[in-house]
Design a protein that fits this description.
This protein has 14 helices and four strands. It is mainly α and 304 residues long. Helix 10 (196-209) crosses helix 11. It is elongated, with a radius of gyration of 34 Å. It is found in: Cell inner membrane.
């Protein structure tokens, strides 16, 4: 890997660019000063289609000037902007700096729009048509790819409209999650449960907790194996909300329902990751978006 991080490639690319420009200038000079052997009628002796003769006329002046301008422009550009390897150019321009400038410009332009929502409560923002419209646009741009345009999610992507939350609730929790992201992990538990049959028995017991169709004999055998799960999901299977362990009795299944889905979860575990959005959204935007998401599952005026 050191070959790809050494200064050689900077020198190689920068040198190649400079040599190419110099080569163009030399080629232009040679073509303008070299005289080809011609006949008295200024022809080279090459003839096509019987009477189509090649003349030895110089390039048009405007064409020559265009070449000269191109070479001069390339040298000036390389002196001002990054073009010759590591050399940053006299102006110190960079794509990162340009991006930061554009982001700052955009934030300054939208700041007055979000200023009116700064002092509002979540309930007030949910009730405000403009705040809801802006929140919906933000949701469509940054959240709908995973949670769906209707926010009802899909397998492994939570439904944001049902009020079933892991790790916390309320407007502030949603703001924190949007800004910093969240990772949910269930470790593989097959070794702690026992044999493959024990895992299947446990799956039927878990199904029985939510009143889902199950094999009652297997469920009875699997009840004692649930002790391996109780540390996170609780002895009654109602989960531990603060640590993000889901309630297994409510019939809400994030990673799939049924015996096979539960067996797969116990055997393999899973890791769900929501990426942080703070690099894409500023604090005011996150505040409006969080209010919109909070309002999807909460009626304004009710307790969080």
């Amino acid at each position: 890997m050191s070959d790809f991080t050494s200064d050689f490639w900077h020198i190689y690319v920068g040198g190649l660019a400079l040599v190419s420009i110099i080569a163009c200038a030399i080629l232009l000079w040679v073509s303008g000063t070299t005289k080809a052997a011609t006949h008295a009628d200024n022809t080279t002796g090459h003839v096509w289609d019987v009477d189509l003769k090649e003349m030895n006329n110089p390039l048009p002046k405007w064409w020559v000037y265009l070449f000269i301008i191109t070479v001069v422009f390339a040298l000036i550009y390389g002196a001002l902007y990054p073009m010759f390897g590591k050399f940053q150019g006299a102006l110190g321009w960079s794509s990162q700096g340009q991006h930061a400038t554009e982001v700052k410009k955009a934030e300054d332009a939208i700041a007055p729009v979000y200023a009116k929502f700064t002092g509002m409560t979540p309930e007030q923002m949910v009730a405000d048509p403009e705040a809801r419209a802006i929140g919906e646009r933000l949701f469509m741009n940054y959240c709908a790819q995973c949670h769906g345009s209707d926010a009802r999610g899909s397998k492994s992507f939570p439904n944001l409209t049902d009020g079933d939350w892991l790790g916390g609730t309320g407007h502030e929790y949603i703001k924190t999650t949007i800004a910093n992201g969240r990772t949910g992990v269930m470790p593989p538990m097959a070794a702690a449960v026992g044999s493959a049959e024990d895992v299947r028995n446990l799956a039927h017991y878990v199904l029985s907790l939510s009143g889902s169709p199950n094999d009652s004999v297997r469920a009875t055998l699997g009840k004692e194996k649930f002790a391996a799960c109780a540390a996170c999901h609780g002895p009654d299977g109602k989960g531990m909300h603060a640590m993000g362990a889901p309630n297994l009795t409510d019939g809400t299944w994030l990673h799939g329902w049924g015996e096979d889905a539960i067996v797969r979860a116990v055997n393999n575990g899973f890791t769900n990751h929501m990426p942080a959005q703070s690099a894409l959204l500023n604090e005011a935007q996150i505040n409006v978006l969080a209010s919109y998401v909070w309002g999807l599952s909460t009626k304004p005026g009710t307790a969080q």
